[in-house]
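Before drawing any conclusions, I needed to go through one protein's amino acid sequence and its backbone structure tokens, quoted below without any editing.
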Amino acid sequence: MKYLLDYQEGERVVAFCLVKSKEAGVASNQSEYLNLELGDRSGTISAKLWDVTPELKEEIQVKSVIKIDAAVQSYRGKKQLVIQRVRLATASDEVQMESLVPVSPFPADELWDKLMKAVDSLKSDTLKTIVTEALSDPETAERLRAFPAGVRMHHQYYHGLLEHIVSLLSAAERLLPLYPQADRDVLVATCILHDIGKLYEMSDPIAPEYTTPGQLIGHLVMGVEIVSGICRKHDIPLGNAEVLHLKHCILSHHGDVENGWGSAVSGKTPTAILFHHLDMIDSKMNALGQTLSDMEDEEWAYSAVVKRKIWRGY
């Protein structure tokens, strides 16, 4: 099966895709057109829809699933679609959402099994209770099997957050023997819960936007609120040392406060400091890997995550 980015200049595309963004414009002949960003699991591509009718302009909205008949053209050195015909998808089309958004290369069931093994490995009854309760919530579990790790930057694809968590758990297990000063159970629990607030900071897994609570509170504080709620439910004292340590690791995992990356507090334990660097490594390497994979014939490409061009000449 071919996806949007598989098509080459001059080819015809008949496919279902997701509207990621929409911008109306007026041509020199005073007719209206739409600039669209369309996506499927291969990525996103710009598209033009000329001479758009008022009805079609109203029908096509961000997050709409549409079927297009389009031609691939080159515009300023990049591929662009010029849409000839378009309609909204219907239930009878039976479009699978997983075909419309980039998806983790690792199956969700495989990742979930690894996550559950990590939970089972926890020796602390307190931390195991907190993590098990968090993951046993049906809404949280459903979201974790679908949500990306962010709107942009890293693991920004279907069940990307789950992949990120499992990757962190794998890295932690490899590094813990080198750093016995870190608390294993707190580190494992932090790997699992550090971004749990993102499941409510973002709107949905298909075309995520930041929710009002997400923008006003942020996922670090939202994650700590979830932990506190579980503690109250299970009569776990909020002053429990492991609870305080877990919360500290969540609140400090974006690094030192003076860096301005969003931490509520700077890391003050070996576990918190180790986790911050694990998180930075995994997020940046994933983002850099995506930049490299998106490069076609270019030797250099800009990476937003490091705010500089990176070289592919090796």
